[in-house]
Design a protein that fits this description.
The chain is mainly alpha-helical. The protein is about 60% helix and about 5% strand.
């Protein structure tokens, strides 16, 4: 056939060359020759096609291994052989051949992975599914995400990436795998981003959690005030660790409050991941429940008594320098040193009552001293001859100018009122006010005299310490001379 085909092709080319118009004369004989050559060319073409069909029909297509592939045409035989080779190369492909793997991934990564494989029509255990089982076997002790993808994208699997990633997330959300990111931090199906799969490491979870265990874990979460639906247990445990730590901060603090409790059980919970984290809650469920309850109660009591301690501290500050301050301060220091503010009965209550009573007495004492001095000075003023010559309106005007007309009594009803009163006018200021009354009333007397005698002259008496009668006489003579020297210009006062 090879030689016949060669001769036919040569004949075809020779006929085609002879058909060149430049090689045949434009005569009747030339036309006849041209027709003959065209006929010869067509016959040669037919012979080539016939020989080619015979050759191709006789071609054998052999599969690797020597098996001949049947088919009506060579195209059919080549197609059949190619498909057969692909099946032989990717013999495990059918296990993952399903269009819903993308939806499986979405559910496993977003909805907790509950029943994700049902989208494939599979309702058994995740680890028994052919794809998930193969992934688990390959991971062995540990594999990176990049290794897992490369392995199952290649022969004999050729699986779609959706199937590979979907199986990983189903196993991860179901607690059958544990994953860590490139910094070795634990990640879950809901926190591991798909673009980070290649950098993540996966290893089998060695701890088994039964459905009845999950019920107990939900009970721990519920008793801690954390709502948890089935399938959300692993996602809610970080909230439990955070709540425990936060409660511990509120259940203790600087003296006089109790020391911050040990959060070891919650620190360990935060460090764990996967089923180990779930098992930690199971093992420590009684301790966790007790800590949450006790710390919540303690936090409420601290908040309730924080105001008492602040009030006690403010009253102690207000009483500094007074005789009763030191012993009460010693008792308050003892409460702080022993961190006993939460004891029953409330140790701050009695100290507050003592301070309120004693400070009220102290303020009232100083107010009464002021009132007594005010009354005495007012009596002296009212006995003055010049003052008596003024009408009531003039007298009141002079007294009001110096704030001597009325005295606003401080409110001393309770601790807050006493502190406010002392903030406005301290005990030292009450002493100053009392001592300044004499000069204020003397100023009022002088103003009354000046109203009646516009030419009234003021003099300052010389200051002197007397040790003998002679010194008194000398001083009187000096004062007399000072007064007499002014009398020619008008009345004199001092």
């Amino acid at each position: 056939n090879r030689s016949e085909l060669t001769n036919a092709i040569i004949a075809e080319h020779a006929a085609a060359a002879t058909l060149d118009k430049r090689g045949i004369a434009n005569t009747d004989a030339g036309k006849d020759a041209r027709i003959a050559m065209e006929t010869r060319h067509r016959d040669a073409q037919k012979q080539v096609q016939t020989l080619l069909r015979e050759i191709f029909d006789g071609v054998q297509v052999l599969q690797a291994g020597g098996n001949e592939v049947d088919g009506s045409t060579i195209a059919d035989r080549v197609t059949t052989a190619a498909k057969s080779s692909l099946v032989r190369l990717y013999r495990e492909f059918d296990q993952a051949d399903h269009p819903a793997w993308g939806k499986v991934f979405d559910r496993a990564s977003k909805d907790g992975g509950q029943n994700a494989l049902e989208l494939l029509g599979y309702s058994g255990d995740a680890e028994q599914h052919p794809v998930c089982s193969a992934v688990m076997r390959f991971i062995g002790v540990s594999k990176k995400g990049s290794e897992i993808r490369e392995h199952f994208l290649a022969a004999p699997y050729g699986w779609p990436q959706d199937a590979i990633d979907g199986a990983l997330y189903v196993l991860l959300s179901g607690g059958l795998l544990i994953a860590t990111d490139n910094r070795n931090n634990p990640v879950t199906a809901s926190t591991l981003e798909r673009k980070q799969i290649t950098q993540a490491s996966f290893r089998p979870e060695s701890i088994t959690i039964r459905p009845v265990d999950l019920i107990k874990i939900r009970g721990v979460l519920s008793s801690s005030g954390i709502d948890c639906q089935p399938g959300e247990e692993a996602n809610k445990l970080p909230l439990l660790a955070e709540k425990g730590r936060e409660l511990a901060k509120r259940a203790g603090g600087a003296a006089p409050f109790p020391a911050v409790p040990d959060t070891k059980v919650f620190d360990e919970l935060a460090r764990q991941s996967g089923n180990a984290q779930l098992k930690h809650v199971l093992d420590e469920q009684d301790a966790i429940k007790q800590a949450i309850k006790e710390w919540s109660d303690t936090a409420k009591r601290i908040e309730a008594r924080r105001g008492d301690w602040s009030l006690l501290t403010a009253l102690l500050d207000a009483s500094r320098g007074l005789a009763f301050h030191a012993p009460i301060q010693s008792e308050a220091d003892a409460i702080s040193q022993q961190r006993s503010l939460l004891d029953d009965p409330n140790p701050a209550t009695g100290l507050i009552q003592q301070l309120v009573s004693k400070l009220r007495d102290a303020v009232q004492h100083h107010v009464q001293a002021y009132l007594d001095r005010h009354a005495a000075c007012l009596a002296q003023l009212q006995a003055d001859s010049h003052w008596q010559q003024l009408n009531a309106e003039q007298q009141n005007s002079i007294l009001d100018k110096r704030k001597l007309l009325t005295l606003e009594q401080p409110a001393l009803n309770d601790a807050a009122a006493i502190i406010d009163s002392l903030s406005d006018v301290s005990l030292e200021q009450w002493v100053d006010r009392t001592e300044s009354l004499a000069s204020k009333f003397d100023s009022a007397r002088l103003e009354a005299a000046e109203l009646l005698q516009p030419k009234l002259q003021r003099i300052n008496l010389p200051r002197k310490t007397f040790e003998s009668e002679a010194e008194v006489d000398a001083w009187l003579a000096e004062v007399k001379q000072q007064i007499l020297s002014k009398l020619n210009d008008g009345p004199v006062t001092f």
